[in-house]
Predict the 3D structure of the following.
Amino acid sequence: MLSDIAYKKMLWHSRRGMWELDILLLPFAENKLRSLEPAEQALYERLLEEEDQDLFACLVERTSHPDPKIQALVVRIRDYAASGVRRPH
């Protein structure tokens, strides 16, 4: 189970230097992060270690992440964003 401190830390790190990343990552983190399995939460934390430009390239399908497990999470984030969830202002 994700502790409140770990959740808040990952939520904070989901705020990036690019607004485009914020609109993809924040809704997913706010609404789905706590319900992920611990292994998936660890993958999300690894995903947040990526440089903004590399992360953006994966999220907008310019490239695939070399780790297939992280790529699967990227697809889930993209699908969630495409589902019409609310975006941060």
